[in-house]
Design goal:
The chain is built from 4 helices and 10 strands. The chain has 176 residues and is α+β, with helices and mostly antiparallel strands. The strands form 3 sheets. Strands 1-2-3-4 form a 4-stranded mixed β-sheet. Helix 1 runs parallel beside helix 2. The longest helix is centred in the middle third of the chain and has 18 residues. It is globular. The relative contact order is 0.11. About 11% of the residues have low confidence.
C-alpha cells in the first residue's frame, strides 16, 4: 500500500512519519496491493486532526478524528476506518470481486477562487451510476453529511443526506 502523508500548520517529524506509515500499512490487508492511502494531519487551535482517505476500485473510504494528541488522533482514525471496513465487509467484498467499479475517483482541490465569490473550495470527482444501496454505503464510508450520485435506475442526479433525526434522506429531482 502506498501511503502519502501531508500536514498543515505543523512539521512531520521522521518518527511521526514512520509511525503513521507503520500503522496505516496494517490496513493494507483489506485492500489490493496497488491501493493508496492519503493521511492528512492538521493542528487547529489545540486540536490535532487526522484524516485518512483510501480510494479503491471506485469506493472511497474516509475517516477523520480530532483529539488533543496527534498520536491519539492517528489511533482513533485507524480504529474508525477499520470499523467502517468491517461494517461494510460483505458489501465491499462483493463489489470488489465482481469488478463493478472501474478506476478510482480523483479529487481536485481548487484554490484559485475569485475574491468576489463565497466558494472557498471546489471538489471534482467522476460520477457514475449506482443504486441507492451503493450510494448509502459510499455515503457512510465517506462520513460526510451528504453524497451526490447518479441513480442507476432513473439516470437522475440524487443526493443522500444525514437527517437531524439520525436517519438518511434521499433527494430526487422532479422535473416540471
Amino acid at each position: 500500500m502506498q501511503i502519502t502523508i501531508s500536514a498543515k500548520n505543523m512539521e512531520v517529524s521522521d518518527y511521526l512519519r514512520e509511525t503513521v506509515e507503520k500503522k496505516v500499512s496494517k490496513l493494507g490487508k483489506y485492500f489490493k496491493p496497488e491501493a493508496s492511502a492519503t493521511v492528512h494531519m492538521t493542528i487547529q487551535r489545540s486540536k490535532h486532526i487526522v484524516e485518512i482517505t483510501i480510494p479503491c476500485d471506485g469506493i472511497v473510504m474516509r475517516a477523520e478524528v480530532a483529539t488533543g494528541d496527534m498520536y491519539a488522533s492517528i489511533d482513533g482514525c485507524l480504529k474508525k476506518m477499520e470499523r467502517q471496513i468491517l461494517k461494510h465487509r460483505t458489501k465491499l467484498e462483493r463489489r470488489l470481486r465482481s469488478g463493478a467499479y472501474a478506476g478510482t475517483p480523483i479529487y481536485e482541490d481548487t484554490n484559485d477562487v475569485s475574491e468576489d465569490l463565497e466558494i472557498v473550495r471546489t471538489k471534482k470527482y467522476p460520477i457514475k451510476p449506482m443504486t441507492i444501496e451503493e450510494a448509502i454505503m459510499q455515503f457512510e464510508l465517506l462520513n460526510h453529511s451528504f453524497f451526490v450520485f447518479v441513480n442507476a435506475s432513473s439516470g437522475d442526479v440524487n443526493v443522500i443526506y444525514a437527517r437531524n433525526d439520525g436517519g438518511i434522506g434521499l433527494l430526487e429531482p422532479e422535473y416540471n
